[in-house]
Amino acid sequence: MNFINHTIKICSIAILGSGMFLACAQSKVATQTKTTTSPSGKIVPTNLKWSERMLLSEMHRFPESWMIDFSKSPKWTYPTAIVLDAAEKIYEKTGKKEYSDYITSFGDKLIQEDGTILTYELDKYNIDFLNSGNVLLYLYEKEKKEKYLKALQTLRSQIDGQPRTSEGGFWHKKIYPNQMWLDGLYMGEPFYTHYTKDFVKGADADKAYNDIINQFDLIQKHLLDQKTGLLYHAWDESKEQQWANKQTGQSPNFWSRAMGWYGMAMVDVLDYLPQNHPGRAKLISYIKSYTDALIKVQDKETGLWYQVLDKGGEKGNYLEATGSSMFVYTMMKSVNRGYLPKSYKAYAKKGYDGIIKNLITVDENGVVNLNKCCAVAGLGGKPYRDGSYEYYVNEEIRSNDAKGTGPFILASLEFEK
User: Fold this and answer.
1) DSSP string covering 50-98, please?
2) Of 89, 158, 168, 417, which has the fewest Cβ atoms less than 10 A away?
């Protein structure tokens, strides 16, 4: 009997493996078909704008949208959503169905017919889980499928149960008690604002918008360094974490991508916050002080930003791609929307040109790579991450991390307007 079971398992794996191979093979065939009609004869034509070139490169690297950011199996994870947000904007610009299909395939794979979200666990109260809801907001608006509405309502219910600090700030995760991280503002607030705009009216909407602005107010209150204008990665209200300053509760360093998340959160929330809401003026003032602080630590030669923002000359520090892409996106979108004076475009342009000159490489087949991306960084957990300078500069560095490619596409689109 054991022999029979063993045989069946081997057959199942072989069949699954074949299926996966066939799926990949079909995707590659489709890509090859496209390249035969390309004037340049390359997988990614070099005569396109940088935004489209990077998206096509991501689609080549990850033939199925759930594979984005090197996922080995379909998983509800936030990096995918950033690239698909960019794909949505490129589809709106070009009307090319392949981009729309790529976004749709994520919803088809991750959301079951009853609205269940694959691999999502509500009781973890992980604010990262809200970010991919942005893809569902787009898909529901486009396709009006009931399963997307149910999934969206599940994600919105997480906000109601999300543990909070004494002043109403969202904990980053249930396993990180009493902590607000800059990352969490991007993970939660654009979704919360967009959902409110689409589905909530009257006093309930006003209450939600005020709650959203309060999250930014608390970040400014607890994480802003008055001397530099930069913001620390995280704050522990209890001051119990090893990484937390015993007087302030702040983590010890200014991590590039954490500040990148925060900037993107502000400009993206403003897309959905009502024009007459008093929080708009507040967010715009935060963007101004935030950008002024970033300009002071922008590398004079390359226009890029370091992994640890204020320690450019120290051993091990490096010019990092994800934070730099996020800063450029935040600045250029702010200039385009009128949140920053037009004079700030020069700083954004210097950063963008620096990315292309120093961090972008193009393969012979036209595929575009974004290099020098910090793969991951956090605080606490097991093994314990202490937030030290040494910790941040020694985390894994890789190419084509979605937390860089997505913001690069978004930044490129702002420059292509």
Assistant:
1) HHHHHHHHHHHH-SSGGGTTT-SS----HHHHHHHHHHHHHHHHH--HH
2) 417
Catalytic residue among 69, 85, 128, 183: 183
pLDDT in tens, 185-211: 999 999 999 999 999 999 999 999 999
Torsion sign across C-alpha atoms 241, 246, 251, 253: negative
Nearest to 292 by CA among 321, 336, 330, 257: 330
Distance from C-alpha of 55 to C-alpha of 100, rounded to nearest angstrom = 12
The owner of tokens 């575009």 is: 368
Torsion angle defined by CA atoms of residues 358, 360, 363 and 366, in that order, rounded to the nearest 10 degrees: -130
Q: CA 289: distance to chain centroid? A: 22
85 is catalytic: no
pTM for the predicted model, two decimal places: 0.91
Quote the CA–CA distance of 396 and 326 in Å, as a whole number.
19
- How far is Cα 292 from Cα 252, in angstroms, rounded to an integer? 21
- Nearest-angstrom CA–CA distance, 410 and 217: 26
